[in-house]
Amino acid sequence: MDQRHSTESVEHKNGEYELIRDAEEPQLGMYDKPLPCFGCGIGWFSFLLGFVFPLMWYYATILYFRNYYQRDPRERAGLAASAIAALVCTIAVIITIAVLIF
């Protein structure tokens, strides 16, 4: 296994582990912290909450198009799912209004 691009942990005398960071790749441990919103991220949280409050899909769509996922790439999938849900919701509302008017 290539040791240059991997992180290892070392056990101390008191039984706790410490993460060894790679000197050549300082960003390896950059995304070790959990995501906000109960660990699932803003995108997936907005997607799930959007079934009750559809405006959450539009909020996540705005975040998606403003490249919020550049801060944490793990957010991209949830934000994209919310953007697709907002598109489907918009089309459904337009069709419903068109049927009611005509």
UniProtKB/TrEMBL annotation:
Alphabetically sorted, this entry's keywords are: Membrane, Transmembrane, Transmembrane helix
TM stretches of this protein:
42-65, 77-101
Protein name, per record: 60S ribosomal protein L18a-like protein
Q: Which organism is it from?
A: Hibiscus sabdariffa
